[in-house]
Design brief:
Length: 403
């Protein structure tokens, strides 16, 4: 037992002797370093730190880092309070109401602060960011994961001082915050996306209600909220139960190709509670479908403001794309008519399933991209439509002549 204790003591000592020189090589001597490395490395002896060292205020240790920019501040943003520290000094607490945010702005300007750092905490930081940005302060929004303090020091006061110290030392890298006009555009785009997601969730609820009634219409037709699907669902909610009558509301192609399957899928158990759920989902989904149009009108207004007034029309004809000087009469500014017709025909074949040209386009697009595939499809369609060499020669001449 004594031998084991001696071996254990030697192993721990060897571990400490190896760790201490390595730390000094990497970080330097803790007593001479400007950064408070004493909190991170081992003590130079095996004795515990003295009592006075344990009583040191963490805020005093934070300020031992040399300050490069004394006019840098940091804000710990919360829903009710804003803790502000300038270059790691003692924090000042402000509220989050409008008057308090304005008082915070005046406080920073009175102390000559030029740059402010804050964490991107939910949406709480947005109003303070807007107010400080409007008076010309440089606001740096950082990721909270990149500025974590030591474990056991998670308080609002310590966080704002730690953030201010790092910012004063130039150790923070701000994230991208779009300009005010783009943020305004995003405020309309986000609810639009939410409305679309909400409408999709109601479609799922409609399918769930039909499934609970063992009605498999959504498994037979491709789109439950298409023209045919909505006609059938509305007829069911109005009390129609005959599969033959419901089939007559579907598109002619559905009646021709899926007649028996649709009739079989419309035989279910029409329970009142599931019919109620189906009606609720349909009503909410239709409401959601109306909201994106309202967002689109607002987005259109913002885009018009960003675009500014339309440019003035040129006094003369625009020059051709193949020259940079004075326009010549032989150079035309438009594509020839034959090329436009073939491109329009090629676009109509892209989604074709039963056409070989549609498969040709998809194979070529997977390898070389959509633009190259469209040009290749244009050429392939010309060879298929005009197989004789003489006609293809005439077509090339017509293209060159601009006919």
């Amino acid at each position: 037992m004594a031998a084991f204790t001696l071996w254990r003591t030697g192993k721990v000592a060897r571990g400490k002797d190896w760790f201490r020189p390595s730390i000094r090589v990497l970080f330097g001597d803790a007593e001479q370093a400007g950064f408070p490395l004493g909190r991170f490395i081992l003590h130079p002896d095996d004795r515990a730190p003295d009592v006075e060292a344990n009583k040191l205020d963490p805020r005093t240790l934070m300020k031992s880092l040399p300050v490069i920019n004394p006019h840098a501040a940091a804000i710990d943003v919360g829903s009710k309070t804003l803790h502000v520290s300038i270059a790691g000094d003692a924090p000042v607490v402000f509220g989050t109401v409008t008057d308090e945010v304005y008082r915070l702005r005046d406080y920073l300007q009175a102390h000559g602060v030029t740059t402010v750092a804050m964490e991107a905490t939910g949406v709480y930081w947005l109003y303070a960011y807007t107010v400080l940005e409007a008076v010309g302060l440089e606001v740096v929004v950082v990721n909270g994961r990149h500025v974590r303090n030591l474990p056991g020091r998670k308080t609002d006061i310590a966080d704002c001082q730690w953030l201010a110290t790092l910012h004063a030392h130039g150790l923070l890298r701000g994230g991208f915050v779009p300009p005010a006009a783009i943020r305004r555009l995003q405020d309309y785009q986000r609810p639009r996306a939410d409305h679309i997601i909400g409408a999709g969730s109601q479609v799922q609820k409609m399918q769930q209600a039909l499934e609970r009634m063992n009605t498999k219409l959504h498994d037979v037709i491709s789109d439950l909220v298409g023209v045919s699907g909505l006609k059938v669902v509305r007829a069911i909610l109005q009390g129609e139960r005959d599969p033959q009558v419901l089939l007559g509301l579907c598109d002619a192609q559905i009646q021709k190709k899926k007649r028996e399957r649709v009739i079989a899928s419309l035989r279910g158990t029409w329970t009142p509670k599931h019919l109620f759920a189906l009606g609720q989902a349909l009503a909410v989904g239709e409401f959601y479908q109306k909201l994106p149009a309202q967002c689109d009108r607002q987005i259109e207004g913002v885009l018009q403001e960003l675009a500014g007034p339309p440019p003035a029309a040129p006094e003369g004809p625009a020059p051709g794309s193949r020259q940079s000087g004075k326009r010549q009469g032989s150079v035309k500014r438009q594509r020839n008519r034959t090329g436009r017709l073939f491109c329009a025909g090629a676009r109509s074949m892209v989604q074709s399933v039963d056409n070989a040209l549609g498969g040709f386009y998809r194979r070529l697009a997977a390898r070389k991209g959509g633009l190259a595939a469209m040009k290749g499809l244009d050429a392939q369609a010309g060879r298929d439509v005009l197989p004789r060499p003489a006609l293809r020669t005439d077509l090339c001449r017509a293209r060159a002549a601009g006919v």
